[in-house]
Structure formats: C-alpha cells, structure tokens
Amino acid sequence: MTDTTTAQPRTVLERFPAGAPRGSWPAEEYAAGQRDQGVDARVVMDLKADQFLVVTNAP
C-alpha cells in the first residue's frame, strides 16, 4: 500500500526572523491575533530561510 499526500496551498500572512531575541513569540502572537479575527492561522518554521511563517490554508 502506498500512502500519498497532497500538499494544500498555503498563504503566508507574515514572516518573522528566527534569530529574533524573543524567538517565535512575535509569530505566535500575530497568529493568535489572526485567529481572534476568524483566520485559521498557524506558525510554521521555514528552515532554509531561518524564519517563522504565519500561514493559512485560505487563498
């Protein structure tokens, strides 16, 4: 059996440098604010760019 997954397109709402003194907190705070407004936002790490991204699956 082969398990295949299809990546859903994501929209990047904001980018935050991973090397910031507060780490991921600014990204988490921004994502929480977006969720408070009804946007399904979450934080992911872009390892190549060394950034935290706030993304949503909404177009």
Describe the structure.
There is one protein chain. This protein is α+β, with helices and mostly antiparallel strands and 59 residues long. It has one domain (11-56). The chain is built from one helix and three strands. It has one helix spanning 25-36; strands at 11-17, 41-46, 51-56. The protein has a three-stranded antiparallel beta sheet, covered by helices on one side. The protein is flat, with a radius of gyration of 13 Å. The model has no long low-confidence stretch (mean pLDDT 88).
- The domain count comes to 1
Question: SSE order, as H and E?
Answer: EHEE
Strand order of the largest sheet: 1-3-2
Computed CA radius of gyration, to the nearest angstrom: 13 Å
Compute the separation of the termini in Å.
32 Å
Mean pLDDT level: 88
- Helix count? 1
Amount of beta strand: 25-35%
Number of strands: 3
- Major sheet details: 3 strands, antiparallel
Which oligomerization state do the chains in this entry correspond to? single chain
Could you say which structural class the secondary elements and strand pairing correspond to?
alpha+beta
Q: What sort of overall outline do the alpha carbons produce when their principal axes are compared?
A: flat
- Catalogue the unreliable spans: none
Helix content: 10-25%
